[in-house]
TrEMBL record:
Record protein name field: CinA family protein
Organism expressing this protein natively: Microbaculum marinum
CinA C-terminal domain residues: 11-161
Alphabetical list of InterPro entries matching this protein: CinA-like_C, CinA_C
Record lineage: Bacteria, Pseudomonadati, Pseudomonadota, Alphaproteobacteria, Hyphomicrobiales
Any coiled-coil regions, as ranges: none
Length: 164
């Protein structure tokens, strides 16, 4: 089974669980460029669960669309725990969704540094009730596509955790 097929199967199951629980979701994505949203909306009937997606690739988009404070980005960098959390909270604040997941990272091949290497991805996930989760992954320099696909899998893990 290809990684794409596995993620499509997971998306279908996730949507079914969220539908059964009466939950809706919004995504806030940077390095994945809408890939989490794409896998979810690839499934027919996803519109009763998937509410909206924010693709906030630039720092300005993070600030304008999600309300991430520019000062937070300046002090911690876009690829950081505080920014991932703020993105997830911003997706909840700027939508009627019950749950959100946010992804910000360095997919490569360039853009990494000693402190923030290629393959570093921060995830945030929020529930309207106030729970906010964070996960940091260091996938390594495994290739841009692989970092992005691995990030979708982690985003699904977080949504599953929040939905249960």
């Amino acid at each position: 089974m290809t990684p794409e097929h596995e993620l499509s199967t997971r998306a279908e199951g996730l949507l079914e669980r969220m539908r059964a629980a009466g939950l809706t979701v919004a995504t806030a994505e940077s390095c994945t460029g809408g890939l989490v949203a794409a896998f979810l909306t690839e499934i027919a009937g996803s519109s009763d669960v998937f509410e909206r997606g924010f693709v906030t690739y630039s720092n300005e988009a993070k600030a304008e669309l999600l309300g991430v404070p520019a000062k937070l980005i300046a002090s911690h960098g876009a690829v950081s725990e505080p920014v991932a959390r703020a993105m997830a909270e911003g997706a909840i604040r700027n939508s009627p969704a019950d749950l959100s997941v946010a992804v910000t990272g360095i997919a490569g091949p360039g853009g990494g540094s000693a402190g923030k290497p290629v393959g570093l991805v921060h995830f945030g996930a929020a529930r309207r009730s106030g729970a906010v989760l964070h996960v940091e992954k260091r996938f390594g320099d495994i290739g841009r596509r692989q970092v992005r696909l691995a990030s979708v899998a982690v985003a699904f893990d977080l949504l599953e955790a929040l939905a249960s």
